[in-house]
Write a structure and sequence with these properties.
Blueprint (H helix, E strand, L loop, with lengths): L1 E9 L16 H13 L6 E2 L8 E11 L5 H11 L4 E9 L9 E11 L13 E2 L6 H8 L4 E4 L14 E13 L2 E8 L6 H13 L6 H9 L14 E8 L12
Parallel strand pairs: 3-10, 5-6
Antiparallel strand pairs: 1-3, 1-4, 2-3, 5-9, 5-10, 7-8, 8-9
């Protein structure tokens, strides 16, 4: 029995998230259904993390044990012929039998997109948070620097986050004025807390709008009080862009995202 690793892209608009749930269709559920049709029996797929309802991915990594011996090209082409148009396999590889996409992940990169044009955009409604307000990229970038490094991110975790500790390390928090009416937030770290990226973006937008000074983000971080931070940014602006791996399992915190 071979273990197969897939890299997926998906538009999360029509799904309750990655993980199978009772209240609607999930990306995991659609993938497992397509795999069952391809290999002829039920297959359980393990993902690198849990994306919420409406969150997208260009680099979700998953793995499963295949009961059939097929060339990796067959998984890539076969699954893409069976999956709905909003889910695609972009790569398939056979990997070690003990590979675990969640426990072996050494880091992830997320990208959050904000549209601040004066009128709404039908083309951005499912991929951007539309705020209809000018924001200052420079002040947000200044505030974001306080978040890089090892910190206690208690103030930026969801109230129902189940992680044992809120200590995390962010390698990169970058604010990019991609175009005149689009801002992108790139957040890269070793592990994440539930809603952590969206809570960070919501707080940085408060700074960008001029409602708070750049120093406020560091005060919130050090205060460790979720109620003092900004509102949670909506899910549809967020995309899991890449999962990073080493040669074996990672030690330390795992995601609760």
């Amino acid at each position: 029995m071979a273990r197969v690793k897939l890299v997926l892209e998906y538009d999360g608009t029509n799904y309750v998230g990655w993980q199978i749930q009772q209240n609607g269709p999930s990306v995991q559920g659609r993938l497992q259904l397509a795999l069952q049709k391809l290999v002829g029996e039920p297959v359980t797929v393990v993902g690198a993390g849990r994306t919420d309802s409406g969150v997208h991915a260009t680099g979700m990594v998953v793995a499963f044990d295949s009961p059939r011996s097929l060339p990796t090209k067959a998984y890539w082409m076969g699954l893409n012929s069976l999956l709905p148009e909003d889910i695609a396999v972009v790569r398939a590889d056979e990997v070690r039998g003990d590979f675990d996409p969640r426990r072996w992940a050494h880091g992830k990169r997320y990208r959050y997109r904000v549209s601040n044009r004066r009128s709404r955009s039908p083309h951005r409604r499912n991929t951007h948070w539309e705020i209809f307000h000018p924001v200052q990229v420079a002040t947000m970038a200044e505030a974001a620097r306080a978040l890089v490094g090892k910190h206690d991110f208690q103030a930026f975790r969801a109230s129902d986050c189940q992680a044992a500790t809120s200590n995390r390390e962010l390698k990169r928090v970058e604010v990019i004025g991609a175009t005149g009416d689009e801002i992108q937030f790139v957040v890269e770290g070793t592990a994440f807390l539930k809603h952590m990226v969206r809570n960070i973006v919501g707080s940085l937008i408060e700074v960008g709008k001029g409602k708070r000074p750049p120093s406020w983000v560091q005060e919130v971080l050090e205060g460790r009080d979720r109620t003092k931070a900004g509102a949670t940014a909506p899910p549809h602006g967020l995309s899991l862009e890449e999962v990073f791996y080493g040669d074996g399992p990672r030690t330390g915190e795992t995601d609760d995202d």
